[in-house]
Specification:
Structural class: mainly beta
Distance between the termini: 118 Å
Number of domains: 3
CATH architecture of the largest domain: Sandwich
CATH superfamily of the largest domain: Immunoglobulins
CATH topology of the largest domain: Immunoglobulin-like
Helix content: under 10%
């Protein structure tokens, strides 16, 4: 009863006392990010004391003892992945106490993972798309390095989406200076603690569209014979679409060049045929012949 009266009197008069005990939290550090779920707790006080902790700030949460009658307390403790909060107190044998509340920190024990990337090894590319699939919840940056051993360039993005099996694209990368060369590229995915780098992949650069040296066709007996002369080292194919068809769709004309030339005879129905013709190389560069009117009588 006497202690209760004294306590109420202290509250009424606004009297405050500073405990002679001084508790210091050396680790975990406020707002620190730890690469392992096992974190060392390191506390000290200026007097022999019992050390306690609790992992949340709810009033009914019980304090749990860490060390007994020490001036330095060090324990390894396993925390949850992500955000954590912990409070500490020290109590001397004489009942003096000191508290440190709400030490907040983060655990990020999973390093970034790179799953797949494009373009594939040996591909012919023009720089329209580099892509990586990755997993990282605390993503900070993704970089793309590319070039030759004597000329490596870099692009970076900090706006890609964190999470599992996410995709980050680097579009329209300027590879003009590497036209006709073999280059290597790789990705690096970073969180706040570490960076993971992909394998290096060799690809072939072709930023030049096929060049048309000659094109003509002759009509005979309900068919048209097309003749092309094209300058293209990495030729893929020539296709056409008949816009006057009832169901227009792309059809192949040529899939290879012989001494830079290609010829193909195609039957057509009687009437007008408005053709679009496209020559494409392996990197996706294209040469387009539009609105070529062919009449079969």
């Amino acid at each position: 009863m006497y202690k209760r009266i004294v306590f109420l009197l202290i509250l009424f008069l606004g009297i405050s006392f500073v405990s002679a005990l001084d508790l210091t939290v050396n680790n975990p550090v406020q707002d620190e990010i730890y690469p392992s779920r096992t974190v060392v707790i390191n506390l000290d006080s200026d007097d022999v004391a019992n050390f306690y902790y609790k992992k949340d700030t709810l009033a009914n949460t019980k304090w749990k003892r860490l060390c007994m009658m020490e001036t330095v307390c060090e324990k390894r403790f396993r925390f949850d992945e992500g955000d954590n909060m912990i409070s500490f107190k020290a109590v001397t044998e004489g009942g003096e106490q000191d508290f440190v509340y709400d030490v907040s920190f983060e655990v990020d024990s999973s390093k970034p993972r790179i799953h797949t990337m494009t373009p594939r090894r040996g591909s012919y590319i023009k720089g329209d798309l580099f892509s990586v699939i990755y997993t990282e919840d605390n993503l900070q940056e993704i970089t793309l390095d590319y070039g030759t051993p004597t000329d490596i360039r870099m692009a970076s993005r900090t706006d890609c989406t964190p999470g599992r099996n996410q995709v980050c694209n680097f579009e329209n990368v300027d590879l003009t200076d590497f036209d006709g060369k073999e280059i290597e590229y790789w990705f690096a995915v970073s969180d706040e603690l570490r960076t993971v780098t992909s394998r290096r992949t060799l690809v072939n650069v072709d930023t030049t569209a096929p060049e048309l040296n000659y094109f003509d066709y002759t009509i005979s007996r309900g068919s048209a014979t097309f003749v092309f002369e094209i300058k293209e080292q990495n030729f893929k194919d020539i296709s056409y679409i008949d816009n006057n068809d009832r169901n227009p769709r792309w059809k192949r004309l040529c899939t290879r060049l012989r001494d830079g030339s290609c010829s193909r005879r195609i039957p057509f129905a009687r009437g007008e045929h408005l053709l679009d013709i496209v020559a494409v190389d392996k990197a996706g560069n294209s040469l387009v012949i539009e609105d070529d009117l062919l009449i079969i009588v």
